[in-house]
Design goal:
Blueprint lengths: L20 H4 L3 E4 L14 E2 L5 E2 L2 H19 L2 H7 E8 L5 E3 H6 L4 E16 L2 E14 L2 E16 L2 E11 L3
Parallel strand pairs: 4-9
Antiparallel strand pairs: 1-6, 2-3, 4-5, 6-7, 7-8, 8-9
Helix pairs in contact: 2-3
Length: 176
């Protein structure tokens, strides 16, 4: 049984049969601030059959990159986005529009996040690729207009010459 979630603990957590994962591992919220959010920690977890969860190092690495990407999105850090996004990147938006790497980064000219929260993290590893799925709740400002969204997000990370890069992202709206 694979279980992936987000938490702020660095040690193993014992779980009773009556506790839900949400009680033990609350979702992480990103909120705009001037200081760096280095205290946040995301872990991918796998149940090992002994009432504890253990993380694989590759899953941790992918989720740390995902966290770095989310923080760069929130902070409009175009240098980090340039570094993390693959040259052949494509995004599929919630209404089906497609953006390439340059368009994705440049959308920050007229769009920014006021808040971004992710939960229900799941990682699937493949030979040279990883798929990350989560639920994103965000508040965005587009040309001065505030919008709130709840989306299921799928990201595809690929290992190119020993470095993980985000190759694709797709947003699917969830009913509110």
């Amino acid at each position: 049984l694979d279980v992936l979630c987000c938490h702020r603990f660095t040690s193993f957590t014992e779980m009773s049969p009556t506790q839900s994962l949400a009680e033990i591992f609350p979702p992480v919220s990103l909120v705009r601030s001037t200081r760096r959010r280095q205290d946040r920690w995301r872990k991918s977890l796998r149940f090992d059959g002994k009432a504890r969860f253990v993380a694989t190092s590759e899953e941790q690495q992918i989720l740390r990159l995902q966290d770095r990407f989310d923080t760069a999105e929130l902070d409009d850090d175009r240098d980090v986005l340039q570094e993390l996004i693959a040259e052949d990147f494509q995004s599929i938006g919630p209404r089906g529009f497609v953006l390439d790497k340059k368009q994705w980064i440049n959308r920050h000219d007229h769009f920014h996040y006021a808040a971004l929260e992710t939960s229900e993290h799941e990682v699937r590893l493949y030979d040279g690729a990883a798929i990350v799925r989560d639920v994103q709740r965000n508040t965005g400002i587009h040309d001065g207009q505030e919008s709130r969204y709840v989306m299921r997000v799928g990201q595809v990370w690929v290992n190119q010459l020993g470095k993980w890069r985000l190759a694709g992202i797709q947003f699917s709206p969830l009913a509110q």
